[in-house]
């Protein structure tokens, strides 16, 4: 997968958040988008994911086979973790995973129950999401994204609400399941993006 941004800018009303952002994300690269609070990291990630529109410039997506993908098809090839993405509160974890499987498959070789176990949620299998702690919800979000069989992972503050064990689990999952996929992390925390060789400072594009 290749994601090419050319002179991309985003404006809210009269305020430009960033401008003239040109960058190509390729293959199995691991990228960190860095910057202070409010600098536009999440906004850039949401533009890449297609959740937000950019105000100027262009974005092109190309599959590994060299086919151009329309922006509205990119979600089929990517998975996102972000604090603002809600899980369905009425579902149990089992139902949550079942619902997710209508849209995306999990990586081969693991059952949903094994995935729940891997992220420490085996006891929550039949519990409604509304009764999860904030850290349990984050573990569920991470599981749904990292175990999705997609070539691109977009991670916005992926360790939000995780305890020390949770952060260590995140790092293990990244190292075990993400070496052969593109990962883009928007973060201020070294523990979240330490594995990313490529660093992008959003403040360079003001
Ligand atoms: N819907 C919106 N309307 C107006 N301004 C917005 C909107 N969404 C975001 N912004 C502004 O865009 C700027 C960038 O926000 P963004 O959430 O991308 O920052 P961030 O770098 O991810 O911050 P943090 O590190 O705090 O998560 C902020 O000034 C924010 O107020």
From TrEMBL:
ABC transporter domain mapped to chain residues: 3-203
Chain ranges passing through the membrane: none
GO molecular function: ATP binding; ATP hydrolysis activity
Keyword Cell wall biogenesis/degradation: no
PROSITE patterns registered for this protein in UniProt: ABC_TRANSPORTER_1, ABC_TRANSPORTER_2
Gene3D superfamilies: P-loop containing nucleotide triphosphate hydrolases (3.40.50.300)
Lineage top rank: taxon: Bacteria
Keywords attached to this entry: ATP-binding, Nucleotide-binding, Transport
InterPro entries registered for this protein in UniProt: AAA+_ATPase, ABC_transporter-like_ATP-bd, ABC_transporter-like_CS, ABC_Transporter_VariousFunc, P-loop_NTPase
Pfam families: ABC_tran (PF00005)
The protein's name: ABC transporter
Organism: Chitinophaga niabensis
